[in-house]
Amino acid sequence: MDQTIRDQIISIIDNVQDMTIATIREDGYPQATTVSYVNEGLIIYFGSSVDSQKAKNIARNNKVSVTINRNYESWGDIEGLSMGAIASPITDPQEFKRVGSLMFEKFPQISNYVSEDEEEPVLFRLDPTVISVLDYSKGFGHTELVEI
User: Fold this and answer.
1) What pLDDT does 130 receive?
2) Is 131 exposed, middle or buried (0-12, 13-18, 19+ CB in 10 A)?
3) How many other C-beta atoms can be found within 10 angstroms of the C-beta atom of residue 102?
4) Buried-most residue among 97, 103, 115, 119 (CB within 10 A)?
5) How far apart are the first and last CA of the chain?
6) Stretch 12-18: mean pLDDT, rounded?
7) pLDDT at 117
8) Number of domains into which the chain is organized
9) What is the domain range of residue 71?
């Protein structure tokens, strides 16, 4: 992957707080959900309730699609990405703790929503396989496809 496009992708991921993740429901329909996330480079992490629909969907089919978009004021400023990725629940205790710390660092308000009485959330890791970068500064609808 070209370093310039890699830097652009990571800049978008680093500087946005929420993404839309699409999973496949049991009835075959896609389900799109907005979630907050953290990342380490191209690897994205998010949390969810064990009983959530997206967690159940991922358990059946771990192929997901993601969109992340910067805020913009006019169409000429549109910049974002869509990504095909493989979602995996984090089972390694060390990785879970590290990602949990990243989540609390980026979103300190988490402590207001999690109690010790509740079941521990599941944390997911997204490993991208293909990324499409949308950058209207290079022309209306301009995209670049990057395979990982």
Assistant:
1) 98
2) buried
3) 16
4) 103
5) 8
6) 96
7) 61
8) 1
9) 3-147
